[in-house]
Design brief:
Helix 4 links the parallel strand 4 and strand 5. The chain has a domain of 193 residues: Rossmann fold. The protein is built from ten helices and eight strands. The longest helix has 23 residues. It is α/β, with parallel strands linked by helices and 276 residues long. 47% of the residues lie in helices and 16% in strands.
Length: 276
Amino acid sequence: MSTNKVALVTGSNKGIGFAVVRALCKEFPGDVYLSARDVDRGTAAVENLKTEGLNPFFHQLDITDPASVRHARDFFKEKYGGLDVLVNNAGIAFKVADSTPFGIQAEVTLRTNFLATRDLCNEFLPIIKPGGRVVNVSSGMSSIALKSCSSELQARFRSNDITEEELVMLMEKFVQEAQKGEHTHKGWPNTAYGVSKIGVTVLSRIQARRLREERAGDQILLNACCPGWVRTDMAGPNATKSPDEGAVTPVYLALLPVGATEPQGQFVSEKQVQVW
């Protein structure tokens, strides 16, 4: 078993995830794994970084495939005894002009961005080592979407006693109501991506609370973040930040110093805790 520290970034063959890997290769004192669904794209991304003099490793990982997730978990457990840093970056967004029916967009977006991220966390959080750092890449859209929810939904999403089960139920309810065309009447915003990222932000609050209760002495810090509006395939060419600029806050949270106790369970943008 390797005694090296190890970091894993999901969905990192391009965009913000790729930039996070680049930064971690320069700043993290251990092995850094770039991961992607597609092996060819992932290995090409690794080779690309090697031309910069960096040395990431590659592991195939499709967060929507439970077998792929378990295989990756077992690999890191057996080779390294767990993970020191996990950056959950993988996600999707439909383009504004996409003509796919909203109900289908809601189902696909929530399945990937929320449910798959949650399922991966449930496999990987038990192998996060003491002193570990977990970063769930959310979005400023989660705050915007939250403000467009009904007061009842806002109260639940902001509450300190919401459970993971209740959160999953609410996310599934959104999909069902979107498929019936009733979501706006039922107090939901008209953005599947925004709701999926509400899920990621609230999930992070729940996970951090659970870590405090179940692994209090392990000093694991888990936060959600907004990387900002970044020029990627997802956000388009008009965004204000480069991918490297978008990586700054996720990398800051991934490298919080030993002994730090904050932020924990927070929503962080521009390296600052935001009011949720």
